[in-house]
Amino acid sequence: MKYFLEKRSNPKILSIVIPCYNEESVLPYLKERLTTFLVKIPTKIELILVNDGSVDNTIFELVNWSKEDKRVKIISLSRNFGHQIAVTAGMDYASGDAVVIMDADLQDPPEVIFEMLERYREGYDVVYGQRIARTGESWFKKITAWAFYRLMKVLVHKDLPLDSGDFRLISRRCLDALNGLRENHRFLRGMNAWIGFPQIPVFYKRDARVAGETKYPLQKMLKLAMNAAVSFSPLPLRFSLALGIIVAFVGFFVGAYALFRAFQHFILEMPIVYNPGWATIVTLICLIGGSILISIGILGEYIARIFEESKNRPLYVVEFVKGIPDSKRFQK
C-alpha cells in the first residue's frame, strides 16, 4: 500500500511502556541500560512500568526506581491480567506524542528506538521491530516462533508482519485509535495491523534474556495463537464446516463401498474374504464423532468470547499508580 507521508519533528514527549511480571532479577539490568541510553534521546521521556500482579519483589524494585528517577511512573494492577492487558494499561496512561512498547528482559535492544524515531520523523505512525536473528534461544523455540507468525498471518490478518512482536513505536493518533478498541481478548499485533495507518519495519537482532526465565513458553504461545485466531478471524468456523463436508464425503464413499461389496456377495454370489461391518462402523463413528466434537469446541470458543464481551467488565483493575497526576489518569 502506498502512503502519503508528512515529515514531523521528534515527539515532545516519548512514552516507553514496559510490562513487568516477576522481573525482579531483570530490573537492575533494565535500569542501568535505560539510564545510560535515555540521555541520548533528544526529547522528554516518561517510563511507564506496569506491574502485572507480580508475586516476587518486582513492585518494590519499581517503587525504589521511581524514587530515584522522576521519569518513572508506575501502574500496579490488582492481579495478573496477562501481557497484552498490561501493555494496554500502559498505553491508556501514556501521555506522550509517541509511545514505544518494549519488554523488560532487554531481548529487544532499546537502541533500536533511535531508528524508530527516524522513521517516525519521516511520517510513519507505526514502526515495528522485525527480527532477523534470535540469540540464546533453542532450535525448538525458533521453529515454533517461525510457525506461529506464519500461521497468524493466515488466520489473523494478511498485513500482519512476520517475525514481529510487540516491540514498536506508535504515534499518538494511532494510539488513540488503538485505545478505542476495548475488546477483552486482545492481540495487539493484529489490532495494529487492523487499524491501518502508515507502517514500516526496522530490522534488528534479538538478544538473549539478561536474566530470569521467558514469560512466553510454548503453552502461552499456543494460547495466544488460539486467542488471536478466534478473536480476529472466522476461519476456524469455516474449518469446522470444511471438516464436516470431508467427513460427509468419507461417509458417502464408505457407504458406496459397502453397497458395492453387498452387490458382489448377494447378486454376483462372490465370497466375502473378511468379516464385514465392524471396521466400517468403528471408522465412521470415530470420524463423525470427532468432527462433531471439534466443531462444537470451535463454536464454543466463539460463544465464550461473546459471553465475555457481553459482561462489559473493565479490561483491568488498578491497585495503585505512582508518578501520574490525577489530571492525566485514564478515564473509562
Structure explained in plain terms:
With 332 residues, the chain is of the alpha/beta class. The protein has 10 helices and 8 strands. The chain has an 8-stranded mixed beta sheet, sandwiched between helices. The chain is elongated and about 95 Å long. Pfam families: Glycos_transf_2. It is a multi-pass membrane protein. InterPro entries: Glyco_trans_2-like (IPR001173), Glycosyltransferase_2 (IPR050256), Nucleotide-diphossugar_trans (IPR029044). It is found in: Cell membrane.
DSSP, total strands = 8
Topology order in helix (H) and strand (E) letters: EHEHEHEHEHEHHEHHHE
Mean of pLDDT: 78
Q: Could you tell me the strand content as a percent range?
A: 15-25%
N- to C-terminal separation? Answer: 34 Å
- Major sheet characteristics: 8 strands, mixed
Helix content: 40-55%
- Provide the spatial order of strands within the biggest beta sheet: 7-5-6-4-1-2-3-8
User: What kind of assembly state do the chains in view correspond to?
Assistant: single chain
Indicate the overall shape. Answer: elongated
Structural class: alpha/beta
Structure annotation, total helices: 10
What is the gyration radius calculated from CA atoms? 26 Å
| Low-confidence segments | none
